[in-house]
Amino acid sequence: MSEAGGLDLRYPIGGLFLVLGLILTGYGVLTAGNTAMYARATSVNINLWWGVAMLVFGAFMWGMAVRAGRRKA
């Protein structure tokens, strides 16, 4: 992406979202049976769904960085 720095920012951004998505998804899976916790969110396990969304976005960013790296070589 940038020739001056040599670092594609999609790698750290994708990595950050992948790690945080894994943590949030894991927390959502572990607390899936706690209905009182999700009562205010209309019984939707918001931790699980946002964790999955973050995983998808992180994988997309990481994949785009890998794809851009292959084009240069």
Biggest sheet record: none
Low-pLDDT parts are none
The average pLDDT score comes to 90
Tally the helices.
2
Helix and strand element order = HH
Principal-axis shape: rod-shaped
In short:
The chain is built from two helices and no strands.
Topology diagram in text:
Layout: H1 10-30, H2 46-72
Describe what this molecule looks like in 3D.
66% of the residues lie in helices and 0% in strands. It has helices at 10-30, 46-72. The chain is built from 2 helices and no strands. The relative contact order is 0.22. The protein has one domain (15-68). By secondary structure, the protein is an all-alpha fold.
List keywords for this structure.
73 residues; 66% helix; rod-shaped
